[in-house]
Structures are given as structure tokens and as C-alpha cells.
Amino acid sequence: MFLYRLEAKGKGFPDSQLFVLAEDEEGAFASAEALLERSALGLITIDEFAIIEKKRAEKGSGYVVETTN
């Protein structure tokens, strides 16, 4: 299993970063798309989807996400 950090841009939702646990890249994209669809109100269109980071899932794995003020 791997921990993926993805970025998504499109219509019907704000630009987003998603974190998913998946066996492979195909599973990561499918899980991330499903998460976006569940969290959005109405129909969405994903224009850009990119894997930013990929790490083996093990104890202590994670990401630091910087915020902008």
C-alpha cells in the first residue's frame, strides 16, 4: 500500500489536495475522484489531476502541508 498526495483542479469544486491510501496509481486516482464527487455539491468536472507525492504506507508516514495566509 502507498500513501498518495494528489492535486485536483476543475469545475464545481475548489482547487484541492487529496490524500489517499491505495495499492497503485490507478487506485489512487479512482479513490480521489470518488472523494471529490462525494464532497462536492452537484456535478463536477475534473480538468487536472496529478500525483504530487507517493510514499510507502508504514507507521509514521505522512505529509506536511503548508498553508497560505
From TrEMBL:
<protein>
    <recommendedName>
        <fullName>DUF3906 domain-containing protein</fullName>
    </recommendedName>
</protein>
<dbReference type="Pfam" id="PF13046">
    <property type="entry name" value="DUF3906"/>
</dbReference>
<dbReference type="InterPro" id="IPR024998">
    <property type="entry name" value="DUF3906"/>
</dbReference>
